UniProtKB/TrEMBL annotation:
GO terms for cellular component: plasma membrane. The keyword Ubl conjugation does not apply. This is Probable branched-chain amino acid transport ATP-binding protein LivG. One of its GO terms (molecular function) is ATP binding. SMART domains: AAA. InterPro entries: AAA+_ATPase, ABC_AA/LPS_Transport, ABC_transporter-like_ATP-bd, ABC_transporter-like_CS, BCA_ABC_TP_C, P-loop_NTPase. Residues 1-14 have a biased composition (Basic and acidic residues). Probable component of a branched-chain amino-acid transport system. Residues 1-23 are annotated as: Disordered. It comes from the Archaea. SUPFAM superfamilies: P-loop containing nucleoside triphosphate hydrolases (SSF52540). Residues 29-278 form the ABC transporter domain. It comes from Haloarcula limicola. CDD domains: ABC_Mj1267_LivG_branched.
Length: 280
């Protein structure tokens, strides 16, 4: 059994990555006419795109293209001014982050948001939904107390397996605030995985990460993708995008400028002009 399988998610067997046509016909995530205004500034201006289930899709664009705002609108950080977000066929536009997480749509942040005064293990154990939890009644009644103990034992076991998968189990009892930047990114991914997601939006997951941890994180993401998890990635490292993403969406001035595989995007003169400026 692979480390990814040991984490406990029940996913189908590894299959070939969905093609662009499959993304169009049966997307897991569908963004249609998304618009976000801040006062007189339009940060996202009618963006539309689709993400296929089980894919590793890149979302790129020059600074100010609207990528982060798009992420924030999809994941409930901002309420869109207009447009629709559908996940797994359901309209989830404007739902708060916790409601989206319950449906299997979660995200990471460019700056990891660990609970610094808690241990790495405790950070991970907080993530699973539907935990029984303790109460005065459960502490007194034997049957309910045993239920809490069984639930906690299951969470602890899954937490250790997840930390092992990301190779940070040796840091389990370290306060999260003492971790390096790269280790915090691995911890954030471990917490995300503990929510049993269907899709993860990654916001600059490699920013500030040294090459060794970068390779480790990319290996884990690729393994999880092969197990059936879907990823949408915002990343400024074009080498990573072109080498790892089978489908790439390019934004410019709040709109989707182009999309396709790496070769198609690299040959698109509109993309070159957006990044380099002027006529090509």
């Amino acid at each position: 059994m692979s480390d990814a399988e040991a984490v406990g998610r029940e996913r189908g067997p590894s299959e070939d990555v969905p093609t662009t046509s499959e993304a169009i016909d049966s997307p897991l995530l569908e963004v249609e006419g998304l618009r976000k205004e801040f006062g007189g500034v339009t940060a996202v201006d009618g963006a539309s795109f689709r993400v296929a289930p089980g894919s590793f899709t890149g979302l790129i664009g020059p600074n100010g293209a609207g990528k982060s705002t798009t992420f924030n609108c999809i994941t409930g950080i901002h309420d869109p001014t207009a447009g629709t977000v559908r996940f797994d066929g359901r309209d989830v536009t404007g739902l708060p982050p916790y409601a989206l997480a319950e449906r299997g749509l979660v995200r990471t942040f460019q700056i990891a948001r660990e609970l610094s005064e808690m241990t790495v293990l405790e950070n991970v154990m907080l993530a699973p939904p539907g935990q029984v939890g303790e109460s005065a009644i459960r502490a007194v009644l034997p049957g309910l107390r045993e239920e809490v103990e069984r639930d906690e034992a299951d969470v602890v076991e899954e937490a250790w397996e997840t930390l092992s998968f990301f190779e940070i189990d040796h840091l389990a009892h370290e306060n999260a605030g003492n971790l390096s930047g790269g280790q915090r990114k691995l911890l954030e991914m471990a917490r995300v995985l503990m929510t049993d997601p269907e899709m993860v939006l990654l916001d600059e997951p490699l920013a500030g990460v040294n090459p060794t941890l970068e390779e480790k994180l990319l290996d884990r993401i690729d393994e999880l993708r092969r197990e059936g998890l879907t990823f949408l990635l915002v990343e400024h490292d074009m080498d990573v995008i072109m080498e790892h993403c089978e489908h790439i969406i390019v934004m410019h001035q709040g709109r989707v400028l182009a999309e396709g595989d790496a070769e198609t995007v690299q040959r698109d003169e509109r993309v070159l002009e957006a990044y380099l400026g002027g006529d090509v």
